[in-house]
Amino acid sequence: MEAVMSLAGQQLLALSASGLAMLLLSVCVVLSLRGQKRPREQSDPQGVCGVREAVIIIRAGQAEALNEVARKALGAASCTARDLAQALLLSDGPGFDAFIRDSVDPGRAPAGPRQFPTKDDRVLDIRADPDGWQVRLSVLDVTRTAAREQLAVVQAQRFRDAFDRVSDLARRAPVLQWRQAADGRVIWSNVDAFARLGWEESLLARLMALPCDRDAEGIAHAFQKRVSLDDTNHPDGKVWFEVTHVPDMQDEVLSYAVPAQKVVDAENSLSRFVETLTETFAHLPTGLAIFDRNRELGLFNPALSHLLGLDPAWMAARPSLAVVLNTLRERRAIPDQSDFRSWRDALLHLGTPGHPDHYEEEWLQPSGRTLRVVARPHPHGAMALLVVDITTDLELERQFRARSDMRDAVLELDGTPRVIIDMDGTVRYAAPEVERFSQEALEQALPPRFAAFLDRLNERFVQDASLDVARMTRFISRAGKVDTVLFAPLRTDVVMKLQKLRGGATLATFRGPLVDASMPSSCGGAGAGEVLQDVLRQNDHLFDLIVLAPPLISDDFSALSCERPDLMRRVVFNMLLSMSEIGRNRGTMQLAADRLDDQVVLSVQLVLATRDNDVIGLEGLLPVTLLRRYVDAEGGTVELTTEGGAGMRVLLPLTTLQPVDSAVVPAISAAG
């Protein structure tokens, strides 16, 4: 860019000098043409057409030709003075008549020669010499001379315009230009225009005062260099210019100065960046090596020599990649290869057509250290080699896997179906029975998101109602106290328990079989008391957070024959679930069963340890809603009480436990 600007400046000044010379030459030509004498007697075969003058005298209103040229011009020996302009084919007849009248007017000064254009595109130079009341006219055809004069004027104007443009360009150029004499004096500059760009004139004066290089004989030579001047306004205290000196033939020097501060600042920033980058590479724990397009080592950091056990002095000699690989093979620092030569060639030609563009492998060192080696080609043929020590990472991974396997073994020890879910809904662990359930349900593995698994539970278990997926999702996604519990009944014999763990995860436990969840529709005529005890045993998980007092079962109730154990399970399960929902960690639950005439009475009472019994309401709970549906379908009633604690009483007709051929058992699954 600097060379282009220098050449442009030289051309501008050269054009300025040549333009001035041509302008002066053209002016001299015009003046010489205008000042030359009129040729009075020159031969012209065509008569008046630009060679000899025609002499005509006007007197007494007649124009008479005094020579042969005049007779040819008039076409006759004479004519009237009024018709003279027409005879000479003048375009401006009235102007010619006025010119004749003025020439004979004694009150006017003698008129000089005047040029008149003709109708046939010629120019006639006419001079009038009055002699009393007669006028002698000299007519000369100056068509060619006028054309040359006009051309000279046009060319002179063009030269003046070009000179003005070049001068204006030199003055307004964003490059400081000046001319120095042989003694170093500045004889011309555009410092005024350059100062308008915001530069101080004192600074520019110091720049132009710098001497140019001359040899022992005092002859200046063309050169270009970068110079700096002290400047307190700049943060670095200096301002930089690219200065070019070009001597001319007159022992004068043309000089150009281009501001180079931005270039210097960019170079300094790049230098500081390289220094910072080099220092960063030197302290990196990752080994780094850069090989050029010839696969010779160009850059490496201390970590590389430490990890690979190579001598830094040997690596400073810039060995090739092939030599480095051969040395590592001798030290057994690279994996054994069945075809070492092919493996090495593939690494040497990494990124070239027909070869892979990425290499990554783990190298086991003789010291027991494991290194991950990654090689990537650069667009211009170079290659970067990264070496990372992953020994600690592998050890941590092995420990994590061992702990994870131990955790899975402990969770699967009792065979209970369990699932561990993160706060974002991702399943982290699933017991084998849960996985078998998922595969049996939709012939797929367990979904990675627990919300999708809940949808599958809906499809598999729930019929007339649906799981409150939104509530469960909120429970899983929010951090809560450890041991916070949420129960979700799936069926009379299957319930899901959600419990918060440390760290925000959730443990989902299923009580009851998931894969083989079919239960017999009858208990073979077992007693009602026995069925009730069986229901309590199956749902003992509901009493993890609440104390269940020994149930009060009357002999009359125990003596009843239970032919509808499925109904008994649904009713008792929802009664227990309702009480556990409102009384967790706060009280004792008492269950009672009795026979009253032709009705079966099932009641449950919750005695809380605190005094907030009256603020507890069972209405609106999903288990209570389902319970009412079951009992209403059998012709029974559900009563809710708050005296002495929250309570619930269910009255069922005695016939509901006896075999009824026409009865249709409602198949309604619980959800919550």
UniProtKB/TrEMBL annotation:
Keyword ATP-binding: no
EC top class, as a word: transferase
Alphabetically ordered keywords of this record: Membrane, Transferase, Transmembrane, Transmembrane helix
Gene: divL
Coiled coil found in the keyword field: no
InterPro entries named among the record's database cross-references: PAS-like_dom_sf
Protein name: Sensor protein DivL
E.C. number: 2.7.13.3
Gene3D superfamilies linked: PAS domain
Superkingdom of this protein's organism: Bacteria
Residues that span the membrane, as ranges: 12-33
GO molecular function list: protein histidine kinase activity
Species of the source: Pontivivens insulae
